[in-house]
Amino acid sequence: MKKLRLGILISGRGSNLNALINACQKTCFPAAIAIVISNKSDASGLEHAKKAQLKTKVIQHEDYPDRETFDKEIYNSLILENVDLICLAGFMRLLSKWFVEKWPSKLLNIHPSLLPSFKGLDAIAQTINSGVKVSGCTVHFVVPEMDEGPIIMQAAVPVLNDDSVETLSARILAAEHKCYPKAVELIARRQLSVSNKKVIDQNNYSLPNSLFNPPID
Ligand code: GRF
Predict the structure, then answer these.
(1) Which CATH number is associated with domain 4-211?
(2) Nearest-CA residue for atom 14 of ligand 1
(3) Fewest Cβ atoms nearer than 10 Å: which of 9, 12, 129, 205?
(4) Rounded to whole angstroms, how far apart are CA atoms 163 and 158?
């Protein structure tokens, strides 16, 4: 089976990129990374890509007069690499409607909350301040409205009494690193369809219960 070609967009640390690199290095994984694009030349995530000998490109938004020209440059770079699926992995720029609509059901994002709760920036601080007892991560298709696309996969983690942004982020991040490759795998294996803004998983896959581990008996 032909492997799906991934384009991955980052801005920073790239731990989700690294999780995707590790997954793609397994022979049986149905996707391969064609290009990693960063809008920051100093994104430490680029190191993961270089170590794995992946093609990288820096497209700095400051170098473009407006959002659409910047987005067109990213679009052209992805088209040149014949990508089938794009994964936003900590990419900190809002993409234009023009760009998003070029990739229906082909553009993914991961967000550190159980959407539709706590959209936008500071999701983890919002989570802690709200007093909710369960949080997690969401992999979703991207639509022009921020953090609103059809949900592909979620994993839950507990929010503990003494959590700081750092401790809760670390717990959520561990869940993200399992979810993102799994979501890519389901798409590559054509197990998902979208109907009425809902993602239907033909095999009803759900992450192992061990990911949801509340501190009660
Ligand atoms: C993750 O928490 C992800 O949910 C959010 O940005 C963060 C990126 O982290 N969209 P990393 O760069 O993948 O380590």
Answers:
(1) 3.40.50.170
(2) 15
(3) 129
(4) 10
Two structure tokens written together for 128: 């802690």
Domain boundaries, the chain: 4-211
| Neighbour order of strands in the sheet with 31-38 | 56-58, 31-38, 4-10, 85-88, 107-111, 134-141, 151-158
CA dihedral 14, 15, 17, 19 (to 10 degrees): 170
Locate the ligand 1 atom nearest the alpha carbon of residue 169 and give its number: 2
The string of pLDDT tens digits covering residues 88-144 is 999 999 999 999 999 999 999 999 999 999 999 999 999 999 999 999 999 999 999
**For residue 24, which of 155, 192, 180 has the smallest C-alpha distance?**
180
- What's the rounded Cα separation, in Å, for the pair 57 and 74? 9
